[in-house]
Design a protein that fits this description.
The chain is mainly alpha-helical and 110 residues long. It has one domain: Cytochrome c-like domain (Cytochrome Bc1 Complex, Chain D, domain 2), CATH 1.10.760.10. It has six helices and no strands. The chain is elongated, with a radius of gyration of 17 Å. The chain binds heme C. Heme C (HEC) binds next to helix 3, helix 4 and helix 5.
Length: 110
């Protein structure tokens, strides 16, 4: 019985670690976001041009997909394509985690 419990706790622990990895790392995303800030703003919410999108508070999945699509060429933009080219899968997850964790104008405030 004890061994079974230990096994169950170990499996649960792995599942949590696995989720964290799949969701990206907010702190690492912040470290990797210096270049992004030059256009999207240091807080992801104050882009340098009004037509540049705000990233703060956008859904993680959406941000991750947008970056993947810029990288693959599915979504075309002369400014973002070269940005996404240099990002690894992990970078994309970390950046998506970071920007989605920020609260910008796009998040509903109660
Ligand atoms: C030279 C300016 C510039 C830099 C630097 C830049 N971006 Fe962008 N970004 C843009 C512009 C302009 C768009 C809108 C492009 C479009 O319409 O598809 C955009 C769009 C995006 C989008 C899609 C947002 C949406 O609402 O659909 C994401 C996600 C994004 N950028 C993430 C990043 C990340 C992460 C970095 C840093 C690795 C970065 N950007 C660096 C200018 C920039």
């Amino acid at each position: 019985m004890n061994k079974l419990w230990i096994a169950m706790i170990a499996v649960a622990g792995l599942a949590v670690a696995g989720n964290a990895l799949a969701a990206g790392d907010v702190a690492k995303g912040k470290e990797k976001s210096a270049l992004c800030a030059t256009c999207h703003g240091a807080d992801g919410n104050t882009p340098i041009m009004p037509e540049y999108p705000k990233l703060a508070g956008q859904p993680h999945d959406y941000l991750e997909k947008a970056l993947r699509d810029y990288k693959s060429g599915k979504r075309k933009n002369p400014m973002m394509a070269p940005m996404a080219q240099n990002l690894s899968k992990e970078d994309i997850k970390d950046l998506a985690a970071y920007f989605s964790s920020l609260s910008g104008d796009l998040k509903v405030k109660y």
